[in-house]
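We close this part of the discussion by returning to an individual protein. The amino acid sequence and the backbone structure tokens for this protein are reproduced below:
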Amino acid sequence: MLHDAALVCGKDLRIELRSRVALNQVVPFAVAVLVLFGLALGPDRAVLAPAAAGLFWVAVLLSAVLAVQRSFAVESADDARDGLRLSGLDPAGIFLGKAAAVGAELLVLEGVLTIGVALLYGARLQGGLVLAGACLAATAGLAGVGILYGAMSTGLRVKETLLPLLLVPLVTPVLLGATKAWDEALAGTPSRAGGWLLLLAVFAVLYLAIGTVAFGPLLEDA
């Protein structure tokens, strides 16, 4: 399973490195979202800084939808999805590999957006371990549930609009936990973020476990 996951993850990342869709489209989109949030709330950093964590994670969530859609779009041409299904790879490995690739892209994006909230919103990047831990756990949860529901909606005509409707309600606990953990870290009280980090870890493990079990049947149905 892990060997197959490494193969699928490497394939997806090589495709992104060659196409540069994430670099040329998803990252600028996320930065533009941060800028628009800043314009909507005004130039006063006394207002922007307290909202930095929430705005950061909303931008990550919107970008995650694009990343998941892209992950399945690369296999929509020339019946590549059927080739993946008939390749003999472990479905659990395919799920973990695609989730790992999306997660790696999101982590790079989060690094860029972290710099963005510091420069645009004046957020003080305190509690680095809490910030990093929240990013890792939240990214695992977002990537896991995103790939799961991406496979569920990929065979439908309305997959572009259905995926966000399916995904957003399920990632609400992840978005809430990540925002609260970042709020505590940016406020200089990272010791109070333990409960939120635990919540993120629980949902990350839950989503990854469900995806590992359910991805095979979903791939066959799609």
About this structure: Residues 34 and 59 are 7 Å apart (CA to CA). The chain has one domain: 2-77+84-221. The chain has a mean pLDDT of 86.
